[in-house]
Write a structure and sequence with these properties.
GO cellular component, one term (chain A): AP-3 adaptor complex
Distance between the termini of chain B: 80 Å
Shape of chain B: elongated
Number of helices of chain A: 7
Largest interface: A-B, 64 and 79 residues
Strand content of chain B: 5-15%
Subcellular location (chain A): Cytoplasmic vesicle membrane; Golgi apparatus
Largest sheet of chain B: 6 strands, antiparallel
Shape of chain A: globular
CATH architecture of chain A: 2-Layer Sandwich
Helix content of chain A: 40-55%
Helix content of chain B: 40-55%
CATH class of chain A: Alpha Beta
Strand order of the largest sheet of chain A: 2-1-5-4-3
Radius of gyration of chain B: 43 Å
Oligomer: heterodimer
Distance between the termini of chain A: 61 Å
Low-confidence stretches of chain A: 176-188
Organism (chain A): Adineta steineri
Number of strands of chain A: 7
Number of strands of chain B: 17
Family (chain A): Belongs to the adaptor complexes small subunit family.
Mean pLDDT of chain A: 82
Structural class of chain A: alpha+beta
InterPro entries (chain A): AP_complex_ssu, AP_mu_sigma_su, APS3, Clathrin_sm-chain_CS, Longin-like_dom_sf
Strand content of chain A: 15-25%
């Protein structure tokens, strides 16, 4: 079973937190920090397994991680998972991200944290590996995006207009507009 | 006009919609732009979100929730918005639903109280037409499912397992595990369904099922042993590495329970190892092979070959440049080490190389391995390399690790591997040179232990210790955090206790007296003073009553000793003053010439013996002695002065555990003279919690010490400096040359300056000795006069024999074990049981409940249809359930049930199940048939995925095998049984679910009995007809062919020629039975059918002639056989009834029947594949679907006291309905 999946960057800023067991937010952040501490001091060319920290783990749990550019991908798993298998799974996850975001970089994960979650949901469920084929995952994600787009189609017009407006920074202008006639009717 | 500003703003916002809202994108950007006041910005954002959540617009709400999910990741508690999240989850739009479920999966947990509001909403989503919505609901559910949800939604999830979409099926299977965790009761009924999924056509679903069963099996492997054959087949056929890895891991867990399974596994696993290119798979194969080999106690013929193969492959892994493979290779190697140390020892070199690895975790792994690899032969080499490593190792942590490892390796099993104790002592002395180690007391204890246990080493040890004592200033100058000074404790004690071995006691005494002892910790001071007295005693005793020498010695000692009275340690000070006074008395007596030298000697009389750790506990506590009561009042907490002493004793205890091998914990003391051993201060053991003094405290202590030095008028300032120079002159550590010392060693004199390189010399020396002995031995054996007998007589108690080389090494007597009170054995562990920390295991384990489930325990109730009342046939249940339980118990009591007894169990269970099945089943001939009836061939009747027709031949093959085994069942071993009969034991529970799967007599001849059973095939519009053929002859029947003439609405499928299917692979052994399957495509269901069927077969007569026979009969396909089990919840049922699609109606009434209402309903459900939608006392609505998808709804009403029943039927197919009703009517009459 996978107990937790963490993604954070080189300065311990979380980019994705997924716990398959309940921890309060405060502990979650502590776990991220502790894990960061364990992982960040390791050299690039050492093995990718380590004993879990004190907060997450116990004898049976190990941290399996990969480091890509600015991001650490960490899976905390128990002994029923194959270490090398999980390493492959991380690779699948990252490659899927790469495909879905087209050359994924940290910024993609920052601004689309929700989408990353959706991709992860195709990858595993309740701590168990669900799908390991990248193409299958990408196909499912695209279908769901299509679904969303269809739904947006109905109400998309105003939304699209809104984004256009926002780009023009109209909201600010609208905000600036005084509404004198309304004010007249007000009792302060 | 009473509007306020807020309302105006709200109005404006509402009318502008999302216009003013921040999107997630904006929020993230905002946070990034407010690096300095991030939390302020976020708090503002949360306030905004709270406003947004109050709005009606779902888009605004969803956006707000989406932002909250992001903030949750940053560590903000968003549980306050739980209700809003549920609102968003319940939105009709996929986009919003997705956002809602994501938020829920991140912040809900089983304790979230609003979860109880979600049950119906989630059920709706689970039943949604869009598979993505279903997937969403399941992903979410997997994160926050709790006991209530698991109970309420179990059936919905079960149904999803039979969904047409693999996307849904595999999620449902995985989710089921979470359901089991939260609602263990669901496991048993759901298990058969789960097992079917192992053979799902979709590999993803298969993988999911394997995954779940592996997780379950980890908790309670015993229950899943019966699945071994299925997994075995999967393992040999599957190509999905993920599945293979899981299965192989599972086998690793199962083999300890069934060693015979392990034997079967070796071969396929070996094949996999040879064939696979996937490292992950290779690694798991090796792991499981190792597990198998551990569980098989008796050696296999190719046992060693397997080990060799594993070791070889592991070597490849370790040699790989990939650090991960290297790490795992070492990990697996350490497993081999436990059982086959020899195989690993061959790869000594490789593991040594790993010690140089830049990765510390790899180095530590390698280090672990080394400890298991040592033997008499290799110990010195290994330790030597480790010493080299130690000197170049960076980081004190790793160095300390190395140090403790060296000691652990050398001391293991009472120093069995050490052939040369001089060498070991010198290694220990060398270790004291290590800067900043924290294992000083460990080294010290080793020195004491060796000196006490190995009598022959004492002389060497004493002189080495004398050197240490002379150079004690080195330890003073060493870094302050170091605990190396601890070795002086051992040095002083050894020199004092074994003074007779000292070359120059006088000199040692002087060096001890000249040390600034007061600068050491209290316990070291104490041991110094005590042993100074011992040495003095020895010198005086051996000086032949020479008054003059004694007088000089004592007066000199008194001079020096008075300095020690200023010790700041109470214990030390006390001892110093006692000893000083003894000396003064002695001096006085000598002056009066009244002194008898033996009087002093009496103080330290007696021999030292090791005592077993448990010895004390074996001594019976005398009556009236309360060990827990305080003798004196407990000391107050503020007694800081005693802390250093306490420290030591605590320290000693903990360190001792480090290298004592679990059951041999020895403590030493003078058996006859307690006072002479400083370690026996029983008053000092109260403080149980020992904390390492922080550097601060040490600093403070040093400060106070310096203060006291300044104040102390006796303290000679600057003397350390001068002493130092003197000492370095006397012991030129660095300039010492090997040759010089070597010559000195050979003359037997141990010079004071014999230093660091000693162990190296000894190493070389012993290598040379070894070689000499080897040559000698060789020449001896060449002469044919080797005396093997010598070996056995000399080594009385060393148990571990190291190959033939053993007698190459000198035999050194090591006192092992320890003394015990009379009549007590050391192995007695009984009192340990109470000591074990049971509290640790009491920690809540979510899987505990799963562990307690035993599939064999009692018959399962039927899952999907929630039938509450027990109809008549089941009334036997109480009596029948007890039976298997009892059987189980008695079987469980036998330690190793013989295969035959298990056999019996199986049989019994099956016949029990028979009693539970429908009345129609009871009529079944199988009950009467003498042979244990095999299970029905096809999985359950409910829309399960197709048993792919391509698999048919294989299935038949296994069945053939099975029928073969039924014949010689009693002698067949269990495993052969489960291996060949792949559905037997596992399916025994399945049988209950197939009550509808009833075999009815179809035709009969003198030679053959044909029974048939019809179930809807899982693909639509098909029927699966199973014929059970029973051979009544004593000849073999084969060449079976079946011919069915197609009707208007039915067509035989998979024909080999027109209207004909032949089964060339099936043959019936004498008096055995077998199944054949045929499938029909059905195009119309309105009318019952009778199909003309011809079965041809040939009988092999003993007279070697073949006789071909045919049986003609009509295959009945009544309308009820066109029904397929389909469950529907009451809401959907009501919708259906109200929808007006069920146009045709029918009504029958039965004036009276023999059964009561609820048992009728039950029987009907079982016989006609109907499920109960709702049941109230006297009415029940039932539902089913035809294989062509026509819904059928029936309302049963109990009309009067005579068990009369009226039935109203509704369907979209008039003829079908009326025919069905007629059938039911005739059935009930």
């Amino acid at each position: 079973m996978i107990k937790a999946i963490l993604v954070f960057n080189n300065s311990a800023k979380p980019r994705l937190i997924k716990f398959f067991e309940y921890y309060p937010e405060e502990i979650q952040q502590q776990i991220v920090r502790e894990t960061y501490h364990l992982v960040s001091k390791r050299d690039e060319n050492v093995c990718n397994f380590l004993e879990g920290g004190s907060l997450i783990g116990g004898n049976d749990y190990r941290l399996i991680y990969r480091h890509y550019a600015t991001l650490y991908f960490i899976f905390c798993v128990d002994s029923s998972e194959s270490e090398l298998g999980i390493l492959d799974l991380i690779q699948v996850f990252v490659e899927t991200l790469d495909k879905c975001f087209e050359n994924v970089c940290e910024l993609d994960l920052i601004f689309h944290a929700d989408k990353v979650h959706y991709i992860l949901q195709e990858l595993c469920l309740g701590g168990m590996v669900l799908e390991t084929s990248m193409n299958e995952i990408v196909a499912r994600i695209e279908e769901q995006s299509k679904l969303e787009k269809q739904e947006a189609g109905i109400s998309a017009a105003p939304a699209k207009a809104m984004t256009a407006l926002k780009e023009m920074n109209l909201p600010q202008k609208i905000k600036d507009i005084k509404l004198p006639d309304l004010n007249l009717n007000l009792r302060f | 006009m009473s509007t306020t500003m807020d309302q105006v703003v709200k109005k404006a916002k509402d009318s502008f919609g999302q216009m003013f809202d921040k999107s997630l994108h904006d929020l993230v950007r905002g946070i990034r732009n407010h690096k300095d006041d991030e939390s302020k910005y976020i708090n503002e954002a949360i306030d905004e979100i709270k406003q947004e959540l109050k709005q009606e617009n779902m888009a605004v709400k969803a956006n707000a929730v989406n932002k909250l999910t992001y903030l949750q990741m940053l560590g903000y508690d968003i549980s306050w918005s739980a209700f809003n999240i549920i609102e968003v989850m319940s939105s009709n739009k996929f986009t919003f639903k997705r956002i809602g479920y994501l938020a829920a999966s991140q912040c809900f947990h089983e304790g979230t109280d609003v979860l109880m509001l979600t049950t119906n909403m989630i059920r709706k989503d689970l039943n949604s037409a869009s598979m993505y919505e279903v997937g969403l609901a399941m992903s979410g559910l997997s994160c926050f499912i709790n006991g209530d949800l698991a109970r309420d939604l179990a059936n919905d999830i079960m149904r999803l397992m039979t969904s047409g979409k693999a996307y849904v099926r595999k999620r449902a299977v995985l989710l089921l595990y979470k359901v089991f965790l939260n609602n263990p009761d669901a496991l048993k009924p759901a298990f058969p369904r789960l097992k079917e999924k192992l053979e799902d056509p979709d590999p993803g679903v298969q993988a999911a099922a394997v995954n779940v069963i592996c997780e379950l099996a980890r908790r309670n492997p015993k229950n899943y042993l019966a699945l071994a054959p299925i997994f075995f087949r999967l393992m040999t056929t599957s190509t999905n590495n993920w599945v293979l890895i899981k299965i192989i891991k599972l086998f690793g867990a199962l083999t300890p329970l069934e060693p015979r399974l392990g034997k079967k596994l070796i071969e396929p696993l070996t094949n996999l190892i040879h064939s696979t290119s996937a490292m992950s798979l290779l690694y798991e194969c090796i792991n499981t092979i190792l597990a198998v080999l551990v569980s098989i106690s008796s050696g296999l013929p190719n046992h060693n070959a397997s080990i060799q193969l594993c070791v070889q492959k592991l070597r490849i892994l370790i040699e790989d440049s990939d650090q991960n493979l290297k790490y795992l290779g070492l990990l697996a190697m350490s497993k081999i080490l436990q059982t086959h140390p020899k195989s690993v020892q061959a790869h000594n070199d490789l593991i040594m190389q790993c010690l140089d690895d830049k990765d510390e975790s790899i180095r530590l792994r390698a280090l672990d391995l080394l400890s298991g690899m040592v033997s008499k032969k290799t110990l010195m080499d290994i330790i030597r390399k480790l010493m080299v490593h130690m000197h170049k190792a960076e980081g004190s942590h790793y160095r300390d690790e190395l140090l403790s490892k060296i000691i652990e390796v050398c001391s293991q099993s009472d120093y069995t591997h050490i052939a040369n104790f001089e060498w070991y002592i010198s290694i220990l002395v060398e270790l004291t040179r290590l800067e900043g180690t924290k294992h000083g007391s460990l080294i010290s204890l080793q020195l004491l232990d060796v000196a006490v246990r190995v009598e022959s080493i004492r002389e060497f040890a004493c002189n080495q210790m004398a050197v240490l004592l002379e150079n004690s200033h080195v330890f003073l100058l060493g870094s302050n955090s170091s605990s190396v000074a601890e070795v002086l404790y051992a040095a002083a004690w050894i020199c004092g206790e074994f003074t007779s071995n000292l070359k120059d006691p006088q000199k040692t005494l002087e060096s001890m007296l000249n040390t600034k002892i007061t600068l050491f910790p209290g316990h070291i001071q104490s041991v110094y003073y005590q042993n100074i007295l011992k040495i003095i005693t020895y010198i005086i005793t051996t000086s032949d009553n020479n008054d003059r020498i004694a007088k000089n010695l004592i007066s000199m000692s008194i001079d020096k000793m008075s300095l020690f009275l200023s010790s700041d340690d109470v214990e030390a000070q006390e001892r110093a003053s006692v000893i000083l006074n003894i000396l003064k008395v002695v001096l006085k007596l000598i002056e009066k010439s009244e002194f008898n030298f033996n009087e002093l000697n009496v103080l330290f009389d007696g021999i030292l013996n090791p005592v077993a750790g448990k010895a004390q506990r074996k001594v019976v506590v005398p009556n009236g002695l309360d060990l827990d009561a305080w003798i004196n009042d407990p000391p107050s907490e503020s007694e800081d002065e005693s802390v250093p002493t306490n420290q030591y004793y605590e320290n000693k205890n903990t360190t001792q555990n480090l290298f004592s091998n679990n059951d041999n914990k020895e403590d030493y003391y003078h058996s006859s003279n307690l006072s002479s051993y400083p370690g026996d201060g029983s008053g000092y053991t109260q403080s149980k919690t020992y904390a390492e003094p922080s550097t601060e405290e040490i600093e403070k202590q040093r400060e106070t010490r310096k203060q006291s030095e300044k104040v102390n008028p006796y303290y000679l300032k600057g003397s350390t400096q001068t002493k130092l120079i003197q000492k370095t002159d006397a012991s030129p550590i660095s300039s010492n040359t090997n040759d010089q010392s070597q010559t000195k060693t050979s003359t037997g004199a141990f010079p004071a300056n014999l230093q660091l390189s000693l162990s190296d010399q000894l190493y070389r020396q012993s290598k040379i000795d070894e070689e000499n002995r080897r040559l000698k031995k060789k020449s001896k054996t060449d002469n044919g006069s080797s005396k093997k007998g010598k070996k056995s007589t000399k080594k009385s108690d060393s148990t571990t024999v190291d190959e033939v080389d053993e007698d190459l090494y000198p035999i050194i007597k090591v006192t092992r074990g320890g003394e015990l009170p009379e009549g007590v054995t050391e192995s007695g562990n009984e009192d340990n049981e109470n000591d074990e920390p049971s509290g640790k295991n009491k920690k809540y384990d979510p899987h505990q409940a799963l562990k307690n489930i035993n599939f064999d325990e009692k018959p399962v109730q039927i899952v999907p249809p929630p039938i509450v009342q027990k109809p008549e046939p089941v009334e036997k249940l109480p009596t029948t359930t007890e039976k298997p339980k009892k059987k189980k118990k008695t079987v469980g009591k036998e330690e190793k049930p013989s295969s035959s007894s298990l056999k019996v169990k199986h049989k019994r269970e099956r016949s029990d199940y028979k009693e539970l099945s429908s009345p129609a089943d009871i009529e079944d001939k199988r009950v009467a048939s003498p042979a244990p009836p095999p299970p029905p061939p096809a999985p359950t009747t409910t829309a399960s995925p197709v048993v792919p027709t391509e698999e048919k031949p294989k299935k038949k093959k296994t069945k053939e095998k099975k029928s073969a085994t039924t014949d010689n069942k009693t002698s067949a071993p269990l495993l052969l049984d489960i291996m060949s009969d792949d559905i037997m034991s596992g399916n025994s529970s399945n049988e209950q679910y197939n009550e509808q799967n009833v075999y009815k007599l179809a035709a009969q001849s003198d030679n053959l009995v044909i029974e048939s059973s019809i179930i809807p095939s899982s693909s639509t519009a098909q029927l699966d007809v199973t014929f059970l053929l029973k051979n009544c002859t004593s000849s073999i029947i084969d060449h079976i062919g079946i011919n069915v003439i197609d009707s208007m609405s039915s067509k035989l499928l998979n024909t080999t020629s027109k209207n004909e299917i032949s089964f060339p692979s099936i043959s019936l052994f004498p008096h055995s039975q077998n199944y054949i399957h045929i499938y029909f495509a059905i195009t119309a269901i309105s009318f019952p059918q009778k199909l003309k069927t011809t079965l041809t077969y040939s009988i092999h007569k003993p007279s070697n002639e073949n006789q071909t026979e045919t049986i003609e009969f009509k295959l009945d396909l009544p309308c009820s056989q066109f029904l397929r089990k389909k469950t529907l919840n009451s809401d959907a049922f009501a919708d259906l009834m109200g929808s007006g699609t069920l146009t045709s109606q029918s009504h029958i009434s039965i004036p009276s029947s023999s059964q009561d209402f609820s048992s009728i309903i039950k029987t009907i459900c079982q016989s006609y594949r109907l499920t109960v939608v709702d049941q109230i006392n006297s009415a029940a609505s039932l539902y089913s679907e035809s294989i062509l998808g026509h819904p059928v709804a029936l309302l049963f009403k109990s009309s009067n006291s005579q068990n009369g029943i009226s039935i109203d039927g509704k369907s979209s197919e008039t003829h079908f309905l009326s025919n069905l009703m007629e059938e039911i009517k005739s059935f009930l009459k």
